[in-house]
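Suppose you are handed a protein chain with no further information: no name, no annotation, nothing but its sequence. What can you learn? This example shows the usual starting point.
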Amino acid sequence: MIILIGFMGVGKSTVGHCLAHMMGWSFFDLDAHIESQHGPISDIFSREGESVFRQYEYEALVSVTNKAEGVVATGGGVVTHSPSVSVLNACHHIVWLRASFDTITDRIANDSTPRPLAHQGLRDRWAQRTPMYESIATNCVDVDHQSPKQIAQTILTHYGYTIN
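A reasonable first move is to predict its three-dimensional structure. Written in C-alpha coordinates, the prediction is:
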Protein backbone atom coordinates (compact mmCIF):
# COMPACT_ATOMS: atom_id res chain seq x y z
CA MET A 1 0.00 0.00 0.00
CA ILE A 2 1.29 3.43 -0.98
CA ILE A 3 -0.52 6.45 0.43
CA LEU A 4 -0.15 9.87 -1.16
CA ILE A 5 -0.44 12.97 1.01
CA GLY A 6 0.03 16.65 0.25
CA PHE A 7 -1.71 19.98 -0.13
CA MET A 8 -4.60 20.51 -2.53
CA GLY A 9 -3.48 20.81 -6.14
CA VAL A 10 -0.27 18.79 -5.85
CA GLY A 11 -1.68 15.98 -8.00
CA LYS A 12 -2.43 13.20 -5.52
CA SER A 13 -5.37 11.84 -7.53
CA THR A 14 -3.67 12.15 -10.90
CA VAL A 15 -0.36 10.69 -9.74
CA GLY A 16 -2.14 8.02 -7.72
CA HIS A 17 -4.12 6.83 -10.70
CA CYS A 18 -0.96 6.76 -12.85
CA LEU A 19 1.06 4.97 -10.16
CA ALA A 20 -1.62 2.34 -9.57
CA HIS A 21 -1.89 1.71 -13.30
CA MET A 22 1.89 1.31 -13.63
CA MET A 23 1.95 -1.18 -10.74
CA GLY A 24 -1.20 -3.07 -11.68
CA TRP A 25 -2.68 -2.17 -8.29
CA SER A 26 -6.07 -0.78 -7.31
CA PHE A 27 -6.47 2.97 -6.90
CA PHE A 28 -8.46 4.46 -4.03
CA ASP A 29 -9.32 8.15 -4.07
CA LEU A 30 -10.70 9.09 -0.65
CA ASP A 31 -12.47 12.19 -1.96
CA ALA A 32 -14.18 10.19 -4.72
CA HIS A 33 -15.21 7.55 -2.19
CA ILE A 34 -16.67 10.18 0.14
CA GLU A 35 -18.56 11.82 -2.73
CA SER A 36 -20.01 8.47 -3.82
CA GLN A 37 -21.30 7.88 -0.28
CA HIS A 38 -22.26 11.39 0.87
CA GLY A 39 -22.46 13.73 -2.14
CA PRO A 40 -20.20 16.57 -3.32
CA ILE A 41 -17.51 17.62 -0.87
CA SER A 42 -18.43 21.28 -1.21
CA ASP A 43 -21.99 20.38 -0.13
CA ILE A 44 -20.70 18.39 2.85
CA PHE A 45 -18.62 21.38 3.97
CA SER A 46 -21.50 23.84 3.62
CA ARG A 47 -24.21 21.53 4.96
CA GLU A 48 -22.43 19.57 7.71
CA GLY A 49 -19.08 21.30 8.26
CA GLU A 50 -15.44 20.33 8.03
CA SER A 51 -15.48 18.15 11.16
CA VAL A 52 -18.13 15.85 9.64
CA PHE A 53 -16.14 15.69 6.40
CA ARG A 54 -12.98 14.73 8.35
CA GLN A 55 -14.92 11.92 10.03
CA TYR A 56 -16.07 10.62 6.63
CA GLU A 57 -12.46 10.88 5.42
CA TYR A 58 -11.23 8.91 8.43
CA GLU A 59 -13.79 6.16 7.84
CA ALA A 60 -12.78 5.94 4.18
CA LEU A 61 -9.08 5.82 5.12
CA VAL A 62 -9.65 3.00 7.60
CA SER A 63 -11.59 1.00 5.01
CA VAL A 64 -8.88 1.21 2.32
CA THR A 65 -5.80 0.74 4.50
CA ASN A 66 -6.94 -2.80 5.24
CA LYS A 67 -6.23 -3.75 1.61
CA ALA A 68 -3.03 -5.61 0.75
CA GLU A 69 -2.08 -3.68 -2.39
CA GLY A 70 -3.17 -0.34 -3.66
CA VAL A 71 -2.46 3.33 -4.04
CA VAL A 72 -4.45 5.78 -1.94
CA ALA A 73 -4.91 9.48 -2.70
CA THR A 74 -5.90 11.33 0.47
CA GLY A 75 -7.46 14.74 0.85
CA GLY A 76 -5.13 17.64 1.58
CA GLY A 77 -6.41 18.06 5.13
CA VAL A 78 -6.17 14.44 6.23
CA VAL A 79 -3.16 15.42 8.36
CA THR A 80 -5.29 17.80 10.46
CA HIS A 81 -7.48 15.06 11.93
CA SER A 82 -5.82 13.13 14.80
CA PRO A 83 -7.61 9.80 14.20
CA SER A 84 -6.56 9.88 10.52
CA VAL A 85 -2.98 10.71 11.50
CA SER A 86 -2.97 7.65 13.78
CA VAL A 87 -4.02 5.46 10.84
CA LEU A 88 -1.36 7.02 8.61
CA ASN A 89 1.35 6.57 11.24
CA ALA A 90 0.68 2.82 11.16
CA CYS A 91 1.40 2.69 7.40
CA HIS A 92 4.88 2.21 5.95
CA HIS A 93 4.75 3.95 2.58
CA ILE A 94 3.46 7.49 2.97
CA VAL A 95 4.57 9.73 0.10
CA TRP A 96 4.34 13.48 0.47
CA LEU A 97 3.85 15.13 -2.90
CA ARG A 98 5.42 18.51 -2.22
CA ALA A 99 4.86 21.57 -4.38
CA SER A 100 5.80 25.20 -4.06
CA PHE A 101 3.03 27.60 -3.13
CA ASP A 102 3.26 29.19 -6.61
CA THR A 103 2.72 25.82 -8.27
CA ILE A 104 -0.27 25.13 -6.04
CA THR A 105 -1.94 28.47 -6.74
CA ASP A 106 -1.35 28.07 -10.50
CA ARG A 107 -2.87 24.59 -10.49
CA ILE A 108 -5.88 25.60 -8.39
CA ALA A 109 -6.54 28.59 -10.64
CA ASN A 110 -6.52 26.34 -13.72
CA ASP A 111 -8.48 23.44 -12.21
CA SER A 112 -12.22 22.89 -12.44
CA THR A 113 -12.35 20.82 -9.22
CA PRO A 114 -14.45 22.55 -6.55
CA ARG A 115 -12.24 23.09 -3.50
CA PRO A 116 -14.12 24.33 -0.42
CA LEU A 117 -11.01 25.63 1.36
CA ALA A 118 -9.21 27.14 -1.65
CA HIS A 119 -10.42 30.70 -1.40
CA GLN A 120 -9.57 31.86 2.09
CA GLY A 121 -6.34 31.72 4.03
CA LEU A 122 -4.68 29.48 1.47
CA ARG A 123 -1.08 30.51 2.21
CA ASP A 124 -1.59 30.19 5.97
CA ARG A 125 -3.20 26.76 5.57
CA TRP A 126 -0.34 25.63 3.31
CA ALA A 127 2.27 26.90 5.82
CA GLN A 128 0.44 25.25 8.72
CA ARG A 129 0.12 21.86 7.02
CA THR A 130 3.62 21.64 5.56
CA PRO A 131 5.27 20.46 8.81
CA MET A 132 2.39 18.02 9.32
CA TYR A 133 3.05 16.38 5.93
CA GLU A 134 6.76 16.29 6.68
CA SER A 135 6.28 14.60 10.05
CA ILE A 136 4.07 11.82 8.65
CA ALA A 137 5.80 11.14 5.32
CA THR A 138 8.23 8.29 4.84
CA ASN A 139 9.19 9.70 1.44
CA CYS A 140 8.91 13.11 -0.22
CA VAL A 141 8.74 13.86 -3.94
CA ASP A 142 8.96 17.40 -5.28
CA VAL A 143 6.34 17.71 -7.99
CA ASP A 144 7.13 21.14 -9.44
CA HIS A 145 7.86 20.89 -13.19
CA GLN A 146 7.31 17.11 -13.32
CA SER A 147 4.64 15.14 -15.13
CA PRO A 148 2.46 12.65 -13.23
CA LYS A 149 4.31 9.81 -14.96
CA GLN A 150 7.70 11.19 -13.87
CA ILE A 151 6.47 11.53 -10.30
CA ALA A 152 5.07 7.99 -10.31
CA GLN A 153 8.37 6.66 -11.67
CA THR A 154 10.28 8.47 -8.91
CA ILE A 155 8.06 6.80 -6.31
CA LEU A 156 8.49 3.39 -7.92
CA THR A 157 12.26 3.80 -8.00
CA HIS A 158 12.36 4.87 -4.35
CA TYR A 159 10.54 1.72 -3.27
CA GLY A 160 12.56 -0.54 -5.57
CA TYR A 161 9.84 -1.35 -8.07
CA THR A 162 10.69 -1.63 -11.76
CA ILE A 163 8.26 -1.35 -14.62
CA ASN A 164 9.12 -2.74 -18.02
